[in-house]
Amino acid sequence: MERPWRAESPAEAKGAEKAVNLEAPFPKGEENLAGGGKAAGPGRDAFGAGDGEMDVSAVDGEYGGAAGDGEYDGDGEYDEDGERGDSAGEGEDDDQDVREYLSVPLLIDATLPVYHASVPELVKKRSGEWRRLMLALGVERVKGPGTPPVSSAGVRGLDGAMFMDFGALFRDLVELGIPEMAFGDSFGCATALGAAWLECGGRGVLCSFGGAGGLPATEELRLMLHTSGISPLTGDGSAISGLRAISELFSGKKTETFKAVTGRGVFAVESGVHVDGLLKDPRLYEPFPPSLVGGRRYLSVGLHSGKAAVRLKRALMGIGGDPEQDRALAEAVRQRSLELRRGLSDQEFQRLHQELRQRTPEGAPASRGKSGG
What we know:
Shape: elongated
Order of helices and strands: HEEEEHEHHEEHEHEHHEHEHHH
């Protein structure tokens, strides 16, 4: 039976809020990323069953059916001492339910199960390192290779929630204490839905690094938790850099240059107004410092660069010079960029700076041409 909220279009999504049925089974014949099944359609990521779940609190990342210490084991329900039960029991009050739900991790990473079908040996080899880096990132639960990314108690889908009053829907669903919520990506909104779920007080978002397997992106949700103040992130960014390197091995692809959080070019700027803002207060254009995610600020000079841009570029590259000549250097940069029909590389900028210094006698006044910020 198809889950009623699994709408494939805005029209089908209309009114789905009233039709949510948490008891409906997962649809059959869908893509099985953990077991090599067939694909049934866009955004439908069903997963095969497996053994055990990786518990990030366990020594040496060993796998076991029950996580213990208040963690979920994949079959029963939560209780405070970490023991599994087939039912929550009778007579439990609301406070007990709240305490149990608060023991659910905010994020549950399922990257290893997603890639296990395609590169099982590599995933097993790197699983321990992956677990340590995720723990350093502040992700409390990491599913191990061969486990089903979505447990039997989890809910998967809600792809069309963006087309309805998802805030009201999510607040109602949070009251049910769902231990795992795996949003689908049929409309490219899985990460946004995961963020909205967390903002509504939800927990247990099933995610994967880079959004692999059609799940919300772990790193983006982790930074959302940081910037919103829900769960601040500390560190030097080595965890993000390390996870990116391993995920590139798993996927066989380089991370897109401007991929949110992990892209190597997300902190690149060129236009004068952006540079001027960064010089005054980096928070004007950066929601978090580059060092937090292992990135670095990169300034690309070109057609829109003014004296503030070339001054910052010199500082970033460790190039000395007379600040009075920055106006002339900015004009030379814009002219060269116009000739090349692109921005200048670091080497081209350095050569242009050297040429200008050689042409301009020491102490000579700088050009008084037009400039931008």
